[in-house]
Amino acid sequence: MRNKLKWINLPTAFLFLIAFLSWARCAKLIKPAVLATSGFFLLFGFSQVISYAQSPYLDDSKEIQWQQIHVSKQDILNKAIGTLDLGEYTNETTVIRPNFNAQGGGMDYRSQSNGKLITLSPKYSEQNGFAIGGVLATPISKNTALGVLLNAGSDRNEWLVNAGWDIDDRQRVIASLGQLRQKLDFTFLTAMGRSQITQNNGAFSYQFLMGRNWLNSAELNAYISNTQSRNRSKTFYTDTTSFYELWNDPRRIAGGRVEGLQARMVMTPSEKSSLKLGFGGERLNYDLLIGKEKYLRATGSAELNQQFAYGYNLAASANFASSQNKFALGLSKTFYEGQQFEINLAAIRGRDNTFDDNQITLNFTQFLGSSPSHAEALNPESKNSQALRPLEASSSSVKTDDSQKVPVNQTWLAFSDQPKPQWVSSLVYAVAKKPAFLPAQVNAKVDATATPTRMVAIDKTQLPLGSFIDKVS
């Protein structure tokens, strides 16, 4: 069966999925929410099939033959010591973490560098055109890291700072602070105008490493996003043969304030995949002229990462928030030299008469460090393989030199203890990303309650002969 699946490759499935979802949406066969949900699970199924097809397999005709093992205690000890590799020290910012591998009947350590990460990100948006972005993430000490994200364009500018701290082996906190400035076209009652809106964001995330089989970690996120309101008052007049009126249109833009709380679970369904599910709630207030427009809504998120052969990684996500929904699909290629190239497609759908947007982003990431495992450190879903386990054959035994039989299921090779559980993402990689629960664009809309006001009204038929009106605009 697996031989027949080898013709399936990542680009084929990627293009097929995009074509199917685009056709279904254009044909208006399904609603956006149903489209996102069905597409997400379809993608998950495809990725599992492709991963299964690319994994090594055993020929059914070559079954493992079990037989009694006759070794001495000295042979076991010599074998364990001879296969022990403690890795390589590179610099003071490198973390050597044990990665046990049962291949070859021994153990090995793989170093995971904790060095700097630099990303260059050109982006195109239907709302804001072209922009250029960049990320610099670096460790500050053994347990802390700092990430700075910048985005600059003619109509969109953003900065975000993430500070992360590994409290201990199982606890992590990340604090985020940033600002987004975005120019958007607003349709007022009298005309269309383009305005720059400023939004301030803040977030705090507490994460706990569980490391229980497929359940990797849990996190609790609290965040706030506040968008300033703006008044773009405009005076205009209407003039007919009999009547003249002078009006003032406030052209008010109501900013939104989001306060949210979300819990997320990080799961590893297989050795090459991770699934993040989030559930929470948000309180959204729009600053209208007549008062607050309030919403209290549930939120949800799902993010799938799937590794494939030759360094390919597929990522898909869906985020449902109180003010906007975002759907993203990305494909990345990691190279051995510590480089990663990624293409991301994103669709943002605003709620309550706010804006929609479609974006495409190219990311080129360079991992700076001297560790030979740059590609592994770059991969956000890298995790340790299974620890070397004891031989399990209750009916077999090991025969020692003194002819004493010891059950094999009680015999362990040296250093066979379970390794400590590890995070799906390293701390440096975690601070290099904008939190997914923060708004992807400013929360603002036209204040429909701020209507034009008539300032002057003149009946021209009642004017004295020879009088005229000095028109003001």
Relevant terms:
473 residues, mainly beta, Porin, 14-stranded antiparallel beta barrel, three-stranded antiparallel sheet, 23 strands, 48% strand, elongated, disordered N terminus
Descriptive account of the structure:
The chain is built from 5 helices and 23 strands. The chain is mainly beta. It has a 14-stranded antiparallel barrel. It starts with 9 loop residues before the first helix and ends in a 14-residue tail after the last strand. The chain folds into 2 domains: 1-59; 114-378 and 422-454, monomeric porin ompg (Porin), CATH 2.40.160.40. Residues 1-12, 57-66, 87-114 and 370-416 have low confidence and may be disordered.
Task: Give the helices and strands, then pairings.
Blueprint: H1 10-26, H2 32-54, H3 73-82, E1 94-97, E2 110-113, E3 116-125, E4 129-139, E5 144-153, E6 156-166, E7 171-187, E8 192-212, E9 215-227, E10 230-231, E11 234-239, E12 243-249, E13 252-270, E14 273-288, E15 291-307, E16 312-320, E17 324-334, E18 339-350, E19 357-368, H4 374-378, E20 397-399, E21 405-407, H5 427-430, E22 444-446, E23 453-459
Antiparallel strand pairs: 1-2, 3-4, 3-19, 4-5, 5-6, 6-7, 7-8, 8-9, 9-13, 10-13, 11-12, 12-23, 13-14, 13-22, 14-15, 15-16, 16-17, 17-18, 18-19, 20-21
Helix pairs in contact: 1-2
